[in-house]
Amino acid sequence: MAETRTVVKQAKKPRWANLDLSNAKLIDMYRQMLLIRRFEERAAQEYGKSKIGGFCHLYIGQEAVGVGAIAALRKDDYIFSSYRDHGHALAAGMDPNGIMAELFGKFTGCSKGMGGSMHMFDASKNFMGGYGIVGGHVPLASGTAFASKYTGKDSVTICFFGEAAANQGVFHETLNLAALWKLPVIFICENNRYGMGTAVERASAVWDIYQKASAYDMDRLAVDGMDVLEMYRVIKRAADRARKNSSPTMIEARTYRFRGHSMSDPIHGHYRTKEEVEEQKKSDPIPGFAAELLAAGVLTQAMIDQMELEIKNIVNEAVDFADHSPEPPAEFLFENVYV
Amino acid sequence: MAIIQFREALNQAMCEEMDRDPNVFLMGEEVAQYQGAYKVSQGMLQRFGEKRVIDTPITEAGFAGLGIGAAMVGLRPIIEMMTWNFGILAFDQIFNNAAKIRYMSGGQFKVPMVVRGPSGAAHALGAQHSQSIESMVAHVPGLIVIAPSTPADGKGLLKSAIRDDNTVIFMESEMMYGQKGEVPEEEYVIPIGVGDIKRIGKDVTIVAWSKMLHVVLTAADELMKEGIEAEVIDPRTIRPLDEGLILSSVKKTNHCVVVEEAWPFASVGKEVAHRVYSKAFDYLDAPIEHVNGEDVPMPYATNLEKLMLPNVSKVVAAVKKSLNRL
Ligand SMILES: Cc1ncc(C[n+]2csc(CCOP(=O)(O)OP(=O)(O)O)c2C)c(N)n1
Ligand SMILES: [Mg+2]
To answer: Using CA atoms, how far apart are residues B307 and B326, in angstroms rounded to an integer?
Structure first.
């Protein structure tokens, strides 16, 4: 599977020439990837200081998948995520302060401190939540897609999940329903090659995960998930088709996580070597995209430096905000169990 | 009042609510073209069309999860489980998603969905088709659990369930679908969480719901022949439980028997008993008696099936034990 990654080539005409992407949007996509990277690095530090508890799954290495995909959406589209949801939440435009405060278990968090790292929600961004049961949220995405169709709206739903989730029964149940009923939903499998410590080859009889959708005769493809432009391109196309023809697509984004499965898992160890991780870091989506934007003159090094500075401030402020926010009041323990 | 079958009463409830609110739809196995595995949805496809009465593949977790997503953005799904034995396949969706989304989103989303279908034994269906699921679902905060015993209660409560903004687990009974009862002609709803005194008496309180309510009413007739006046309380809603109604009856009769089809271990009946012990202990003249299904999977053989389930003589014996009149 290692051979499938495409190397970014310095083409004469920039690759985004046919993608209807303004310079401002390109810069914003880069900025979002960088924000996620720095935010997650800081989350790791705060976890080390016990400011963040529980399971904490970082998105470092996979930024291009979420950013490219969500950049291709409209504001009225729906987004579902797994427990590895910080990056998706940031890409959806959620307030970094609210996300960090959620990690800190504070009342100002995006889920009022009731969800934590794995359960970020923001109704105002149609961010339908992060879910902790592997594969368990996939059918929910068919539900919002069903609702769009039922009410005659042309909103599209996208659903992120890992390659290990594609072994769950409910993933297959949902693909069948989505194909059978032609629901406007895009399944985005982030194949980072491991489900915790189990390599995809040891868990799935089929290594081309996108081909699982062939059982349901669904449009499907694999894409280089380390390439934000490719992500944007394929999701845009799938979303357009979902909007026009109300048809689902299954996309396998081939990517890699540079950190451990969660904060309690080392970067390398029993299941993968240091060499493998270092090798994969050569396809880091962020410097790759920076080089491309620099070469095309869309970005300058000065702009990147400035951006780093701004992001540093945003992340600092988020930590400060989270630190100084109140915990949920004791009475809130009993709120929202029922409507 | 019209006299109609339980299944017709449920059908009326769904049709009336679908007339009222275009966001309500019915989805499940065999609900549309086949007219319902137990004919609860008879005529609904013809009346509402295939957009709103939807046949699914056999994919309980899939369409329960679909219902949850649809409910999160404003639809009001009625999900029919052909029986709750198969609804168990959707427990992950119901427990981990439907019951928790409101809480873990800090109140941003709600899941106004009804999941309904028959629970409990019918006749000779064996171990995998004869389970009562109320304590399994009632254990989970975030779910409402309803188990009506009469056509009128079924209709009024199903209408409330469909209008409720929470996820409601609605349990029916294969054996009760054909039972007839009086149902008001005019529109009405029955509030969730309000029990009903199905028979007034002074000597003993018997708590029972769904199909067991009818076993208990027959037992109460038997007991009357011996001069024992049983008060029969039907909580109708399992969660939230109408504790007040049960307690006030026990305070009057000083004796309590709980009858349920489900297994005895960690059952809803044990919860009822706990509430009575902790809040009306001084009123009890005897320990609370329980009649449950036996603590075994359901056997196929008809003679053993009968032994497994609560029946009139088991209820009569439990009451007499409670009254020390054995
Ligand atoms: C149903 C279920 N089983 C097991 C777990 C524990 N678990 C959490 S994440 C994970 C690995 C999932 O891998 P994948 O789907 O590839 O996503 P990734 O973590 O790589 O993003 C496991 C086993 C769980 N949360 N849910
Ligand atoms: Mg994985």
So the answer is: 20
